[in-house]
């Protein structure tokens, strides 16, 4: 267990600053993209002498990374071991690469994350996410668990029958899974008379979908799982570009920042650090990355943070679940919301099993939102009233053949379900 996180906050910040200065030096000397950027903007890295001084450095956007992708590579190509791509949630996937040191760092990151969730060497963990298809996370989980010494069952994604056969065969204590897939496992177990409530599984480390609201209470999805299956759910948050994960401890009051692996800022629209509890965009500087180091990378994810001491003893900052994507903010009839707000209403309604949310512009350039539901669903007025009671506005409800919903939700080549599609 990393003792740094349990130290006094000033000790944590001193260590983090030392690592941040080292990373700034490495970037200025080795990254073609940042060398040129610093030259063009007459930026002197040696003049950055405090966390506050970072405000003088420009933010790196996803568009920068996509447009100048190869210029971010800071090591000889022969040193690159692993080639991956981002999930492409907001556009085309972006190439990303890691050398041997980056893979070691990735293993250390997940090693600490699993420790945060209580996984030990004596536990067995079933990974229900893919390790192939250029997906960084699946490999990261394997490397972290290997470093921890835990037993690993690599079932990969999908196939509920294989998942349950593996659970019965190997008796894992933990699953690594997308929350909505846990509901599929429950549904399959109920249909096939599997006694899932008395299985070996006691907890799940969840990825890809929020489990909690801004107050750290289980959201509709989290409640649906735990009401059926009494297992402990741990939220995690990560991305390929960050090469770092943020994970809940057993207190479930936010995702802890691994302060010696990443520096985080949460900024408002003016680029200023927000106060605890205020919503802003997460901007990160991963520490210790070598192949494609990023400086003040704007994730596009909107969230809050909490800097109060945690009852687990760690004194690191904690992040909330993602509230929405910055680029996906919707202004519907004067009300500002994110797709997650609509998803939460639909999950709370708990009748529609499959849907797709679409955003577009009307003839006047205003945001328009349409929710596609199966054409067998007939309680449209009731759903609209429920939306109005929860959000004060209601999107258009569009009955659609289930085959088309599935086609829109699972486009060819996508690693994740596309529940929200933005045509604006």
Report on the biggest sheet. Answer: 9 strands, mixed
Mean of residue pLDDT values: 93
Helix content: 25-40%
State the end-to-end distance. Answer: 46 Å
Given the helix and strand composition, which structural class is it? alpha/beta
Molecular shape:
globular
Estimate what percentage of residues fall within beta strands. 15-25%
Total DSSP E strands? 21
How would you write the strand order of the largest sheet?
4-3-5-6-7-8-9-14-13
Total DSSP helices: 11
Report the radius of gyration as a whole number of Å: 22 Å
pLDDT under 50 segments (min length 5)? none
Topology (SSEs and partners):
Blueprint: H1 9-30, H2 32-40, H3 62-67, E1 80-85, E2 95-99, H4 100-116, E3 124-127, H5 136-148, E4 151-154, H6 160-170, E5 174-177, H7 179-191, E6 203-206, H8 220-228, E7 232-239, E8 244-248, E9 255-256, E10 262-267, E11 280-286, E12 297-303, E13 305-306, E14 318-319, E15 324-325, E16 330-332, E17 335-337, H9 339-349, E18 356-361, E19 367-374, H10 380-391, E20 396-400, H11 402-409, E21 420-422
Parallel strand pairs: 3-4, 3-5, 5-6, 6-7, 18-21, 19-20
Antiparallel strand pairs: 1-2, 7-8, 8-9, 9-14, 10-11, 11-12, 12-15, 13-14, 16-17, 18-19
Helix pairs in contact: 1-2, 4-5, 6-7, 7-8, 9-10
């Amino acid at each position: 267990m990393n003792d740094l996180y349990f130290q006094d906050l000033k000790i944590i910040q001193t260590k983090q600053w030392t690592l941040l200065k080292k990373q700034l030096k490495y970037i200025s000397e080795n990254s073609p993209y940042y060398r040129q950027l610093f030259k063009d903007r007459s930026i002197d890295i040696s003049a950055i002498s405090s966390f506050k001084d970072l405000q003088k450095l420009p933010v790196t956007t996803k568009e920068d990374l996509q447009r100048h992708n190869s210029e971010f590579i800071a090591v000889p190509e022969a040193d690159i071991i692993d080639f991956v791509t981002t999930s492409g949630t907001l556009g085309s996937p972006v190439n990303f690469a890691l050398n041997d040191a980056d893979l070691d760092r990735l293993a250390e990151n997940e090693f600490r994350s699993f420790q945060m969730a209580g996984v030990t060497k004596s536990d067995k963990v079933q990974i229900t996410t893919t390790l192939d298809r250029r997906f960084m996370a699946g490999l990261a989980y394997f490397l972290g668990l290997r470093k921890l010494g835990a037993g690993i069952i690599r079932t990969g994604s999908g196939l509920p029958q294989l998942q349950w056969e593996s659970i019965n065969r190997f008796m894992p204590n933990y699953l690594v899974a997308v929350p909505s897939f846990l509901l599929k496992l429950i549904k399959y177990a109920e249909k096939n008379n599997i006694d899932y409530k008395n299985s070996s599984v006691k907890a799940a480390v969840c990825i890809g979908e929020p489990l909690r609201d801004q107050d750290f209470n289980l959201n509709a999805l989290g409640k649906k799982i735990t009401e059926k299956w009494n297992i402990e759910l741990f939220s995690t948050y990560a991305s390929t570009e960050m090469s770092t994960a943020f994970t809940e401890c057993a207190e479930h009051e936010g995702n802890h920042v691994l302060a010696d692996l990443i520096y985080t800022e949460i900024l408002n629209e003016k680029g200023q650090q927000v106060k605890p509890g205020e919503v802003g965009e997460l901007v990160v500087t991963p520490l210790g990355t070598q192949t494609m180091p990023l400086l003040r990378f704007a994730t596009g994810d909107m969230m809050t943070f909490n800097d109060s001491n945690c009852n687990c003893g760690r004194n690191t900052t904690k992040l909330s679940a993602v509230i929405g994507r910055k680029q996906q903010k919707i202004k519907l009839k004067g009300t500002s919301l994110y797709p997650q707000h609509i998803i939460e209403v639909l999950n709370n309604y708990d009748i529609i099993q499959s849907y797709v949310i679409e955003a577009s512009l009307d003839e006047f350039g205003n945001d328009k939102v349409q929710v596609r539901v199966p054409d067998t669903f007939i309680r449209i007025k009731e759903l609209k009233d429920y939306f109005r009671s929860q959000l004060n506005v209601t999107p258009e409800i569009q009955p659609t053949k289930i085959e088309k919903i599935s086609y829109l939700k699972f486009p060819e080549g996508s690693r994740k379900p596309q529940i929200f599609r933005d045509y604006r």
